[in-house]
Write a structure and sequence with these properties.
By secondary structure, the protein is mostly helical. It has one domain. Helices cover about 75% and strands about 0% of the residues. It is built from 7 helices and no strands. It has helices at about 15-20, 25-50, 50-60, 65-85, 85-105, 115-140, 145-150. Helix 4 (about 65-85) packs across helix 5 (about 85-105) and helix 5 packs antiparallel against helix 6 (about 115-140). The longest helix is centred in the last third of the chain and has 27 residues, at about 115-140. The two termini are about 30 Å apart. The model has no long low-confidence stretch (mean pLDDT about 90).
């Protein structure tokens, strides 16, 4: 039996299920930090070269105000995920941000043949990140988060 009253999916897997339930808050913290660092790192590098980033985004069809706003949203979204503040909102916001960014910058099928493989890798990496963001949206931040302290 698992801590939540459900039986394990398989008797030989019950130790794995018990581990997942017992370590849920720690695992959610690690997941938040791992996902958040992707956005923090990417946003920080874009903020470090803001004029180049804005020019590149505008070449991809992003309007000027959004081209300035995107790196800020990316960085701040990653930061709030890491600390676990407004986690579900952050996960959902970054979910939509990632969909738009993927469509704007990683349409690998439109790139020259020499660049398609690298862009396809970026596209599918983003699809994977979308899955992680949805999982965080559903699971919430866990116990080790600013959200938890604000509820008190």
């Amino acid at each position: 039996m698992l801590g939540n009253g459900n039986k394990s999916s398989h008797p030989y897997l019950s130790c794995t299920d018990n581990f997942a339930v017992g370590m849920q808050d720690t695992i959610l913290l690690v997941a938040r930090v791992m996902l958040g660092l992707v956005f923090l790192n990417s946003g920080w590098s874009k903020l470090g070269n803001l004029s180049g980033t804005v020019a590149s985004l505008m070449q991809n069809g992003v309007p000027l105000p959004l081209a300035y706003l995107a790196p800020i949203c990316e960085f701040l979204g990653g930061l709030v995920l890491v600390i676990g503040f407004a986690t579900r909102y952050a996960a959902l916001g970054l979910f939509f941000f990632t969909i738009i960014a993927t469509y704007m910058s990683h349409r690998y099928w439109t790139y020259p043949a020499a660049e398609q493989k690298a862009q396809a890798t970026q596209f599918w990496k983003n699809i994977t990140i979308l899955g992680g963001l949805l999982a965080l949206f559903v699971a919430g931040p866990g116990r080790f988060a600013v959200d938890r302290f604000l509820r008190r």
